[in-house]
Amino acid sequence: MTGSIQTIVMPKWGLAMQEGTLTKWLVAEGAAIKPGVEICEIETSKITNALESTIAGTIRRRIAEEGVVLPVGALLAVVADRSVDDAAIDGFVAKFNEEFAAAVAAAGSEAPGPQSIDVGGRAIQYQRAGEGGIPIVFLHGFGGDLNGWMFNQPVLAEGRATVALDLPGHGGSSKEVGDGSVELLADVVGGALDALEIERAHLVGHSLGGAIAATVAAKHPQKVAALTLIASAGLGPEINIGFIDGFIAASGRKDLLPILQTLFADPALVTRDMVNETLKFKRLDGVDQALRTIAQAAFPGGKQAPRLRDRLAGLTMPVQLIVGADDRVIPASHAAGLSGNVKVHTLPAAGHVPQMEKAGDVNKLIGSFGPAA
Amino acid sequence: MARKLSFRQSINEALAQEMARDPRVVIMGEDVSGGTGSPGEQDAWGGPLGVTKGLHSKFGAARVLDTPISESGFIGAAVGAAAAGLRPVAELMFVDFMGVCFDQIFNQAAKFRYMFGGKATTPVVIRTMFGGGFRAAAQHSQCLYSIFTHIPGLKCVVPSSPYEAKGLLIQAIRDDDPVIFFEHKMLYDVEEEVPEGAYTIPFGEANILRDGKDVTVVALGRMVTLAMQAAQALAKEGIQCEVIDPRTTSPLDMDTIVESVGNTGRLVVVDESHPRCNMATDIAAVVAQEAFDSLKAPVRMVTGPHTPVPFSPALEDLYLPSADKIAAAVRQATRKAAA
Predict the structure, then answer these.
(1) DSSP code string of A321-359
(2) Is B184 part of the annotated catalytic residue set?
(3) What was the pLDDT predicted at A1?
(4) In the structure, what pLDDT confidence band is assigned to residue A109 with cuts at 50, 70 and 90?
(5) How confident is the model at residue A107 (pLDDT cuts 50, 70, 90)?
(6) Which of A30, A196, B191, B277 is buried deepest, with most CB atoms within 10 A?
(7) Domain B4-193: which CATH number of 3.40.50.970, 3.10.25.10, 3.20.20.70, 3.40.50.700
């Protein structure tokens, strides 16, 4: 009987996530679900997001209570056909919880954390996950870090190698950024691919990371099997320079919260911990100068310096651009009028970070794009 | 890089990184190295609880100075050295001993910038242990940060965790004013993820550890952990606490507290000090003045009683605020509102 019983558990969104809170149920007991249906809202230490179902069936039992903190992997709900009787479900739940408690006690925290390599004298932090195929390499945007891919990397790493990098000046990487130019940052990324012995990769770059990824692709086309740009810089002169300046200037929670909210179509997604984690990064020695140097090089006079439209037209590998329709940092209109080799996807109800706000959609677009092996 | 450090290690790392960065940073205090002037190993002791251990071998006797057991002497020396251009970090073992050098701190260090028309700075840090629970009796267990908070010209820091301690101590060392840095001795073995690089946490900006709509709970130092435990227990009863750690009592971020009380309408202040003229009474008074219209219930304070800290372990446990006492105060605050 238990063969037809399926589970929905606390997801692991990013390697740092150890627990989460189910803040709101979005389906009732007895509801029929299918893949893509939003099951509940989960608040992590970074962000609140909807958990989408990957399975089909009937919600037979909602186990988790709203507002209670649960470890990753804890049972949230039981899904089974209506024909499965209640006693079988009770037995399944009891057994699952018993085994889960034992597994938690035995495991401790052994998830491999990020590592660091030397690239031309700079320490570059990276996070590997998954194995096989052409690796997907993630490049975050201005002020971000590799944890920004927490809704994407673990999902795409199922059955495929992935690496997320911290760019110079960011996350756990060296805070020395040279002249801060996209060219220099692209050279460091190219060097990191070599150091990590990645011959060819599907580069995924967000915002400033998009401009960097496109530059790597133009300079080293043999290293790039496919290119996904998300809300990319370098496609037009306009940028919300208030976001960049505000991000650099913000020294406290009250200043930073409205800045981070600019990133999302739904500002309520920004949690206190997301603000705190960003402040922790900004407080590190060297970060302020690194951000100022990069911003000065990339956005002098409040306009974008990188000009990549022509470079994209010359690329021979598959190229796609994903933008959020409600982007308040880089206008979604920059996606218009690109050369025909760039496949454009505009996601509704998403802001500047669709990979967080519309993670499921973005993951599908990335996972199904370009050669996988 | 998920690297955990204890509160003790994070203070040691902050000192080491600032000493490496700035040659003007020197350390002085009783046994901060240990062994000066006697045969045998130097750097054996590293302060009474080993916080400065290893710094003597890294930076040498010229920058890690064992001092005589004379607080009035070496605190005065540290203040003078700061006025003359060094950035000394003096360790005054237990805050309970501060009485013998009040003049150096209250009437000298705190006054220089003001009385010399802004032309003088006194970048001295005085690190000191405080707080109960260590079975160290009445002369080694007091809190006393309220006394220093009272004096204009001093900055007072009360870190609540290893991450907080490192960033606040680096900020203290780089600050141009005299800073009293209070280390709760029961926190030294607490561990937490701490970045390897140097970083600073600005003074006068409270940390909100938990959002809640029902009650604002303000706590300092070790009390922050207890307040969080209480908040977790209360969440199961459906009471959502907003937990605020002011981090520094001078400057004090009353804006964050007042704003929070504006949302919750209820305030519980947890302060390990004696109940008269402490941070709890001070914060309660400002809230009464600034947010009276928001209050739905009387402000509650959780403090020690107005007695010396008892030596009897059983009595000391009763003396100190606990998560249970905090939870009880929060329930009281919410019941009053419901009635």
Answers:
(1) EEEETT-SSS-GGGGTT--TTEEEEEETT--S-HHHHTH
(2) no
(3) 40
(4) very low
(5) low
(6) A196
(7) 3.40.50.970
For the B207-338 domain, the top CATH level (class) is alpha beta
Q: What is the pLDDT of residue B1?
A: 46
pLDDT at A45 over 80: no
In-domain check, residue A373: no
The domain that holds A142 is classified in CATH as 3.40.50.1820
d(CA B246, CA B182) in angstroms, rounded, equals 13
Q: Across the interface, which of B1, B167, B211 has its CB nearest the CB of A114? A: B1
Which chain A residues are Cβ-neighbours of B198 within 8 angstroms?
284-285
Quote the pLDDT of residue B27. 97
Q: What is the mean pLDDT of chain A?
A: 92
**DSSP assignment of B269-295:** EEE-S-SSSSHHHHHHHHHHHHSGGG-
Find chain B residues with C-beta within 8 A of A125's C-beta: 1
Average of per-residue pLDDT values in chain B: 95
Q: Is B136 helix (H, G, I), strand (E, B) or coil?
A: coil
The whole-angstrom distance between B125's CA and the closest CA on chain A is 20
State pTM to two decimals: 0.85
The rounded Cα A253 to chain-centroid distance in angstroms is 23
Which stretches of chain B score pLDDT less than 70? 1-2, 336-339
The partner residue sitting opposite B199, judged by closest CB among A113, A114, A283, is A283
Residue written as tokens 């994407």?
A: A152
Q: What's the Rg (C-alpha) of chain B?
A: 20
CB contact under 8 A, A285 and B195: no
A113 touches B: beta carbon within 8 Å: yes
**Residue A266 Cα, gap to closest chain B Cα (Å):** 19
Classify residue A226 as left (phi > 0), alpha (psi -120 to 50) or beta.
beta
Higher pLDDT, A372 or A178: A178
Rounded average pLDDT over A299-306 = 95
Would A372 be classed as within a structural domain? no
* Nearest residue in chain B measured CA to CA from A67: B235
| Domain encompassing residue A59 | 2-107
